[in-house]
């Protein structure tokens, strides 16, 4: 088919816009990487754009030695790993019964869950419940208060419902109970969607911020998100003090440190992201079918 | 119907249901304790809650908390800010994922599409603390990328994050930047359902790309657009806590203070539980009402969600 001049213009415009959008995601990241491994002098004079100048790892060194970075990194890992395990188990336990046509009151239970998506008790009443249960200052407050995401549960339920019923009929013939059916047959064929939900829950727990501020007062238990945020904030406090008394050395190190701190938060995500990308695209598409 | 009901309580079905009910019990408890119990806790919006008396024995005050909220210029300003920031985010941000999806749909080179997708989905997974760090490294008043640029051109640095108008623009823009790619996935999924023969015959008839987009792609994804628009209505009085908390500073608090940060500051840090619960309840009720109203309108056009 002949391509008209107008369509050629459109195509070029299209590519240019998409390249610009892609760069808007890529450049800030590259800029942060460059900042974190450049020398203080180069950062101070604004020589660092997308390429590191005067390579060194002082910032990471200082982060590890001068801040509770390692501790909060481990806290973040603990919160994420346990949280994902609990949430995945609960979401499966919610979605599987609701996907079975013979389950009592499945419509009622489903509506009861969906209602919580559009109407909630809000922050304070939830806090009072958590406080009443004595969970303040414990990670259980974070885990239990977000045990099942209704949205994720609906994605999983839809997936289970679309598994051909011949499979479980056959299994039942062989005398397979519900638990074994779930563990041996349903879950293994649901790996793509389970991977998607693992990513969603993992990211949510890795990034958890507001709940951390609300429920965890003990600074030893703070996660990476709160630590990095405090570093960014204290820097703005520092800036104000520098208006009065300029101290270049401290200021420059802070810029690089801030970038390094942000990178430590992004790094684990960047590591798993490429492997899970194809899954989450499928997962979101699935969720959109029966939102 | 009756037969089905009788069948419903027969032994076989009960036996089948027993393991399912056991599986489901923890989940049911979660919803009751952490979702429905707090809804019951909303009664403290009509009380003067204090720690000594607890939820049940604190004195009733009727609508006093609500009256206080709607007569205090400070809390009215917070409602106004919330409405402003969220409607800007919804209405300005709404077309971006649609346009992005349309543009990506027109790309024929698969490797290029893959690379762009990988990059534009990424910011969705960043926490707001990371986005904040990026924003400060670009727009910050001192030592940021732009400030160096200003110095280079011998211009007085502009305080982007300390000026109300530019702060709002950065707030809305960073939200769009963060979520645009990910939200485009849903539209791209909708586009895969469009019959390719429509494009072929339109091409035969001499319709150019632009006309194909207007007359085939957009009508094809219209149901999805309306559905997502209805859903976004439920968030019209909701501005997330994280972005505001991360980006705010005292210089812009007149426009940046929103319901979620107000509840955190006045409610949790200032221990005014009843007043802020009333605020939270106001937000929830408005969200529910709007969602039902917009859905009602959409249903008139056979496009309702429920």
Description:
The complex is a heterodimer of chains A (291) and B (306). Chain A has 291 residues and is mostly helical. Chain A folds into two domains: 1-56; 57-289, Orthogonal Bundle (MetI-like fold). Chain A is built from 14 helices and no strands. The radius of gyration of chain A is 25 Å and the shape is globular. By secondary structure, chain B is mainly alpha-helical. Chain B folds into two domains: 2-46, no CATH class; 64-300, MetI-like fold (Orthogonal Bundle). Chain B has 16 helices and no strands. The chains are: A mainly alpha (291), B mainly alpha (306).
> Can you identify the CATH superfamily of the largest domain in chain B?
MetI-like
CATH topology of the largest domain in chain A: MetI-like fold
Largest interface: A-B, 95 and 98 residues
State the helix count of chain B.
16
What level of helicity do the residues of chain A show?
over 70%
* Strand composition percent of chain A: under 5%
Give the second-level CATH assignment, the architecture of the largest domain in chain A. Orthogonal Bundle
User: Shape of chain A from CA axes?
Assistant: globular
Distance between the termini of chain A: 39 Å
Q: What's the main sheet of chain B like?
A: none
Low-confidence stretches of chain B: none
Kindly name the structural category of chain B.
mainly alpha
Overall pLDDT confidence of chain A: 84
* Spatial shape of chain B: globular
Tell me the CATH architecture of the largest domain in chain B: Orthogonal Bundle
A few lines on this structure:
The complex is a heterodimer of chains A (291) and B (306). Helices cover 77% and strands 0% of the residues of chain A.
What's the topology here?
The complex is a heterodimer of chains A (291) and B (306).
Chain A (H helix, E strand, L loop, with lengths): L4 H32 L3 H5 L13 H9 L2 H31 L6 H13 L4 H10 L6 H7 L4 H12 L3 H9 L4 H12 L1 H16 L3 H6 L8 H21 L3 H42 L2
Helix pairs in contact in A: 1-14, 3-14, 4-8, 4-11, 8-11, 8-14, 11-14, 13-14
Chain B lengths: L1 H7 L2 H30 L13 H4 L6 H8 L1 H21 L1 H11 L4 H12 L6 H12 L5 H8 L11 H29 L3 H9 L4 H25 L7 H7 L5 H4 L2 H11 L3 H28 L6
Helix pairs in contact in B: 4-16, 5-10, 6-10, 7-10, 8-13, 10-12, 12-16, 15-16
């Amino acid at each position: 088919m002949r391509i008209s001049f107008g369509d050629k213009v459109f195509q070029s415009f299209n590519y240019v816009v998409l390249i610009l959008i892609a760069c808007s995601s890529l450049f800030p990241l590259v800029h942060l990487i460059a900042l974190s491994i450049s020398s203080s002098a180069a950062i101070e004079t604004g020589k660092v754009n997308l390429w590191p100048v005067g390579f060194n790892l002082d910032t990471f060194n200082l982060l590890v030695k001068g801040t509770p970075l390692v501790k909060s990194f481990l806290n973040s890992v603990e919160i994420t790993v346990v949280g994902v395990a609990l949430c995945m188990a609960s979401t499966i336990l919610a979605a599987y019964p609701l996907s079975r046509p013979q389950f009592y009151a499945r419509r009622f239970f489903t509506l009861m869950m969906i209602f919580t998506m559009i109407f909630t008790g809000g922050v304070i009443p939830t806090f009072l419940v958590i406080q009443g249960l004595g969970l303040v200052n414990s990670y259980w407050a974070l885990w239990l208060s977000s045990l099942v995401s209704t949205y994720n549960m609906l994605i999983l339920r839809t997936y289970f419902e679309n598994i051909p019923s011949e499979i479980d009929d056959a299994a039942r013939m062989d005398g397979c109970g519900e638990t074994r059916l779930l563990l041996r047959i349903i879950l293994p064929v649901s790996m793509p969607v389970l991977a998607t939900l693992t990513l969603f829950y993992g990211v949510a727990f890795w990034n958890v911020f507001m709940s951390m501020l609300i429920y965890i007062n003990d600074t030893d238990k703070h996660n990476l998100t709160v630590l990095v945020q405090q570093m960014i904030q204290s820097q703005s406090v520092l800036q104000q003090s520098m208006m009065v008394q300029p101290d270049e050395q401290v200021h420059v190190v802070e810029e690089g440190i801030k970038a390094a701190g942000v990178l430590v938060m992004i790094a684990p995500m960047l590591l798993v992201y490429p492997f899970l990308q194809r899954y989450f695209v499928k997962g979101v598409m699935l969720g959109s079918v029966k939102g | 119907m009756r037969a089905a009901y009788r069948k419903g309580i027969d032994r076989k079905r009960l036996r089948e249901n027993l393991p399912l009910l056991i599986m489901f019990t923890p989940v049911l408890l979660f919803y009751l304790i952490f979702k429905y119990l707090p809804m019951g806790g909303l009664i403290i919006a009509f009380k003067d809650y204090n720690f000594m008396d607890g939820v049940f024995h604190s004195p009733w005050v009727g609508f006093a908390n609500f009256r206080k909220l709607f007569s205090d210029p400070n809390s009215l300003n917070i409602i106004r800010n919330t409405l402003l920031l969220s409607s800007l985010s919804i209405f300005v941000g709404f077309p971006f994922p649609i346009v992005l999806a349309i543009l990506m749909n027109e790309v024929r080179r698969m490797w290029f599409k893959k690379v762009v997708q990988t990059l534009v989905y990424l910011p969705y997974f960043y926490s707001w603390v990371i986005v904040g760090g990026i924003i400060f490294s670009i727009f910050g008043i001192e030592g940021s990328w732009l400030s160096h640029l200003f110095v280079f051109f011998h211009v007085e640095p502009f305080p982007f994050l300390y000026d109300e108008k530019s702060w709002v623009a950065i707030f809305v823009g960073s939200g769009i930047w963060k979520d645009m790619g990910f939200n485009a996935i849903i539209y791209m999924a909708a586009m895969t359902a469009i019959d390719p023969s429509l494009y072929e015959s339109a091409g035969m008839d001499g319709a150019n790309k632009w006309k194909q987009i207007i007359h085939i792609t957009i009508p094809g994804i219209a149901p999805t657009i309306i559905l997502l628009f209805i859903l976004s209505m439920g968030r019209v009085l909701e501005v997330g806590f994280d972005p505001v908390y991360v980006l705010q500073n005292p210089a812009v608090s007149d426009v940046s203070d929103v319901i979620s940060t107000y509840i955190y500051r006045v409610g949790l840090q200032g221990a005014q539980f009843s007043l802020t619960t009333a605020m939270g309840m106001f937000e929830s009720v408005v969200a529910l009402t709007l969602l039902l109203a917009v859905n009602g309108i959409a249903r008139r056009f056979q496009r309702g969600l429920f």
